[in-house]
Amino acid sequence: MTAIVLDIEGTTSSTESVHVGLYAYARPRLGPYLEAHREEPAVRAVLAEIGAATTEEAVKALHAWMDGDVKATPLKTLQGRIWAEGFAAGELTSHFFPDVPPALRAWHAAGHRLAVFSSGSVASQRPWFAHSPYGDLSALVGDWFDTVNAGPKREAGSYARIAAALGGPGAPLFLSDVPAELDAAAAAGWRTAGVRRPGEPNATAPFGPHPVIATFEEIDL
Ligand SMILES: CSCCC(=O)C(=O)COP(=O)(O)O
Ligand SMILES: [Mg+2]
């Protein structure tokens, strides 16, 4: 049994589907969402983290993060809540590369343990897998990690926390399109594979010592 931990954007799913589909959905909804939910403790905490005095200032900071694709946790928390509502309302559908659903089904059937570690919040990860064009894939995933419950994706400590949560035996395998994330996982003793998908922003990234795959069919467990 191997624990296989999946990045989303650039690995299971295209960057375009996140940036064009999801970001465009969240952008005009951030301000109204903050206005409607600003008294909730979780939203107040997010506003405090942003350090903005008004909704207008907060939205400006959030939009700037989105423009620069800064994966800041307060932004990811709010986006995740908005996307979860969008998926529940039937207004959003996720995207998976065609090799991914069959691989996930085969690994799950073979008894491997599947988990997600993404900058996208857990609140958005679950509906992303549940509302796929290939059906509900969420039941295949046993554990969900984001930058709140695990920590930053480029720090080894986050992977050590995930490994402790998953338990053994053996080292987990992390699949990602970002070399710095793979470096952090390897530093925590994990197996890694760099995902080089044609046409993706990280298609020419230097993966250094990490084995590189183009599709999940190439993974040898
Ligand atoms: C649930 S899909 C949301 C994806 C997202 O917001 C994101 O930032 C993905 O980053 P990743 O760490 O999966 O590359
Ligand atoms: Mg990624």
From TrEMBL:
Protein's pathway:
Amino-acid biosynthesis; L-methionine biosynthesis via salvage pathway; L-methionine from S-methyl-5-thio-alpha-D-ribose 1-phosphate: step 3/6; Amino-acid biosynthesis; L-methionine biosynthesis via salvage pathway; L-methionine from S-methyl-5-thio-alpha-D-ribose 1-phosphate: step 4/6
Q: What is the lineage of its organism?
A: Bacteria, Bacillati, Actinomycetota, Actinomycetes, Streptosporangiales
Task: Report quaternary structure and partners.
Answer: Monomer.
Protein's job: Bifunctional enzyme that catalyzes the enolization of 2,3-diketo-5-methylthiopentyl-1-phosphate (DK-MTP-1-P) into the intermediate 2-hydroxy-3-keto-5-methylthiopentenyl-1-phosphate (HK-MTPenyl-1-P), which is then dephosphorylated to form the acireductone 1,2-dihydroxy-3-keto-5-methylthiopentene (DHK-MTPene).
Q: What class of enzyme is it?
A: hydrolase
Its family remark reads: Belongs to the HAD-like hydrolase superfamily. MasA/MtnC family.
Superkingdom of origin = Bacteria
- Entry cofactor note text? Binds 1 Mg(2+) ion per subunit.
Its recorded name reads: Enolase-phosphatase E1
Q: What gene is behind this protein?
A: mtnC
Query: Which keywords accompany this UniProt record?
Result: Amino-acid biosynthesis, Hydrolase, Magnesium, Metal-binding, Methionine biosynthesis
Q: Which InterPro entries match?
A: Enolase-ppase_E1 (IPR023943), HAD-like_sf (IPR036412), HAD_sf (IPR023214)
EC nos: 3.1.3.77
Residues of the signal peptide: none
* Catalytic reaction list: 5-methylsulfanyl-2,3-dioxopentyl phosphate + H2O = 1,2-dihydroxy-5-(methylsulfanyl)pent-1-en-3-one + phosphate
Cofactor entry: Mg(2+)
Mention one GO molecular function.
Answer: acireductone synthase activity
